[in-house]
Amino acid sequence: MNARILPYVLILPVTLFLCLFFIYPFVLVSQQAFQAADGGWSMENFQEVVEYWKFPISMKNTLLLAAIVVPVQLALALLMATMVSKMKKGRDMVLYIWTIPLGISDLAAGIIWLAIFEQSGFLNSMLHGIGVVDKPVNFLTYQNPWIVFLAIALAEIWRATAIMLVILVAGIGLIPKEYYEAADVFGASKWKQFTRITFPLLRPSLQTALVLRVILAFEIFAVVAALGGTLFPVLMGQTYSYQFDLLNSGAAAAMALIILGISIGFTLIILRILRVPKGASI
Amino acid sequence: MAEIQIKNIAKSFGAFQALNDINLTIADQEFMVLLGASGCGKSTLLRIIAGLEVASSGEVWIGGKRIDHLSPKDRGIAMVFQNYAVFPHLTVFENIGFGLRMKKLPNDEVTRRVERVAGLMHIEMLLKRYSGELSGGQRQRVAVARALAMEPDVILMDEPLSNLDALLRMEMRAELKGVLAESKTTAIYVTHDQVEAMSMADRISVMHQGDIVQAASPIEVYRDPAAKFVASFIGNPPMNFLPAKPAGPSKWQVAGQTFDGPNTDKAVLQFAIRPEDMQPAEQGLVATAKIVEPLGAHLLVTCQIGDALFRVILDSDAVVKPGQSLTLAPQPDRVRWFDPDTTLAVA
Ligand SMILES: Nc1ncnc2c1ncn2[C@@H]1O[C@H](COP(=O)(O)OP(=O)(O)OP(=O)(O)O)[C@@H](O)[C@H]1O
Ligand SMILES: [Mg+2]
Questions:
Q1: Is residue B26 within 8 Å of B156, Cβ to Cβ?
Q2: How far apart are CA A252 and CA A246, in angstroms?
Q3: What would you measure as the largest C-alpha separation in chain B, in angstroms?
Q4: Please, which residues have CB within 8 angstroms of residue B92's CB and are 6 or more apart in sequence?
């Protein structure tokens, strides 16, 4: 077969699959979102979801969570990745252990942390055992919004730092060791080597890791549902309740598009900030 | 003043002994080449001097100060790496100025020095580019410029030209030598290319399996190899060897001919001569030509004497056919003798 056509023929099945199961539903959802009750085009659905009193809170909660969780995960993943790549023996073992949470679904992760924080949970037994509290406390109530927030953030950090770690470990492995030797000879301290060499050379991996994490952070749902229930509304939770509690699929579609818009916006920002100039890659 | 003294340096990687008891003094502003086959420990020695590798024992002194416990940046050295290690995410300017920035020199001083060395290395027009937009030769120049910009006491180079093509290598060789002589730094230059070593060095240290076999000027290493290893490593083709038996005081018999030689009581010696130091003559060693290779400038003839192979370089006008018998006379003052037991030269 003609070598010019062959590559396109080979990617055809995947393209068809994506069109059928991704683009087509996406078009349907968009249609739904922009459809008015009478069947015409309108912004009605968007207006409805945005004006609902829970929208600003869920927007704030989602953004706040992402703003706290993602930087902490980034810092932790960078630290862990640097440590792992300095190890000579047992490196794979440590990586396996650190990536165990990756194998656990987000709902299961939420339930695990619920078992820690709930009234009859580990935390209470422990505090009771060492005598800090005399009877079990219910942490996850509307009186303690910050504890609810903290529990969700902790669960997310525990659950999803490893995905960044894996990407960053692979990225650090690509940086030739000679660069560090040159940096040593030319007087860069370990910290300077991290900020001047590792970090800039890691930009492609950082892009991937951050885009992935930020998108997932805006889609947070199951962990919040398990730990916060209705105490901590987030965008995805709102989408769910429009669709399945209120049976308003037009509003749910509008919410989904809003989340998509935010994700695309942040993706572009991340790609822009961490872009690598032409000719400047390893 | 940056005299380098290497005292009793040894290095082992686990059970493997990479360097055995190296002793070497390199004079201020000298250009010292470490020459040896792959795996003989050249890079290891250089990296110990740089502080990138820790010696198992021994001391390194630079300018009268012991430095082997200092970190690389405090040793007054700069280094050019084999794969250049030019930072891809920095422009050429920032690469050359990297060490100066780390020293927190003021901006105008950085600019002044970067522009000066960029001029020396003829890369002024590349200062704004990234290394991905440079050729291998240009990257090489950046690596050298980065080292020179530090104005170091000592500059260390690990096979800096080995990734360049032959023509560029020859060009860079001469240029590098000139620039380094001008900069008045002491230089240690690692290579496995003997032509590079001969043409650039003030002195060559020939290394073999973790030892320095001979440290001397290029011409001395070539004319008076201290050991059989040096004689057979240097020169292309290398020296010829023939067994010699005693034939009276200071007389040795080689392939039926008697030569004046050293006065020792050894039962056997090795007679050695360079291929270009043999001339066709009436009287001399009788050889049978096996392979004749016209190389333009001269004629390389591989012959057989007894059961030993023997190479001679003859004038390109000489007419020699395979199978032909040749009578070859060695130039008497170029004959060398080696002890087959110790492999060392015998005077
Ligand atoms: N980190 C290391 N661990 C184990 N062995 C090593 C290490 N570094 C070097 N060696 C061994 O030490 C010996 C000397 O290595 P070195 O790199 O100094 O050789 P070299 O003379 O520079 O060779 P080349 O011309 O190939 O660069 C080699 O046999 C090598 O296998
Ligand atoms: Mg080497």
A1: no
A2: 9
A3: 76
A4: B118, B123, B126, B127, B128, B129, B130, B131, B134, B142
How far apart are the CA of B43 and the centre of ligand 1, in A?
Answer: 7
| Record: contact B150-A186, CB cut-off 8 A | yes
Which two three-digit tokens encode residue B60?
A: 């390194």
Q: What is the mean pLDDT of residues B249-276?
A: 90
What does the alpha-carbon distance between residue A164 and residue A160 come to, in Å, rounded to a whole number?
8
Report the number of distinct structural domains present in chain A. Answer: 1
Cβ within 8 Å of residue B57, ≥6 positions away: B8, B9, B10
Minimal Cβ distance to A186: which of B88, B98, B131: B98
Q: How far is A277 from chain B (nearest CA, A)?
A: 8
Confirm whether A58 is domain-assigned. Answer: yes
B79 contact residues in A (CB cutoff 8 A): 181-182, 185
Residue A7 is assigned to a structural domain of this protein: no
Does residue A1 have a pLDDT over 70? no
Which positions in chain B touch A176 (Cβ < 8 Å)?
A: 83, 85
Comparing A140-149, A175-184, A270-279, B170-179, the range with the smallest average pLDDT is A140-149
Across the range B19-45, mean pLDDT stands at 94
Angstrom distance (rounded) from CA B172 to CA B156: 16
Instruction: Tell me the sheet residues that pair with B36.
Output: B207
Whether residue A10 is contained in a domain is answered as: no
Tally the C-alpha atoms within 13 A of residue B63's C-alpha that lie toward its C-beta. 12
Tokens standing for B204? Answer: 């060559």
Amino acid B16: pLDDT: 94
Per-residue pLDDT tens for B274-314?
Answer: 999 999 988 889 999 999 999 888 999 999 998 889 999 99
What CA–CA distances, in Å, run from A98 to A77, A161, A172? 10, 9, 17
CATH 3.40.50.2300 fits B4-232, yes or no: no
What interface predicted TM-score (ipTM) does this complex get? 0.85
* B259-B264-B269 Cα angle (round to 5): 60
Architecture of domain B237-338: Beta Barrel (2.40)
Give per-residue pLDDT as tens, B48-82: 999 999 999 999 999 999 999 999 999 999 999 98
| Mean pLDDT of the A63-74 span | 93
Query: Which ranges in chain A belong to alpha helices (H)?
Result: 6-18, 24-33, 44-51, 54-86, 91-98, 106-117, 122-129, 145-173, 177-185, 190-193, 199-201, 203-218, 222-227, 235-240, 249-273
Interface test with B, best of A174, A179, A186 (most B CBs within 10 A): A186
Question: Which range of residues forms the domain containing residue A169?
Answer: 53-273
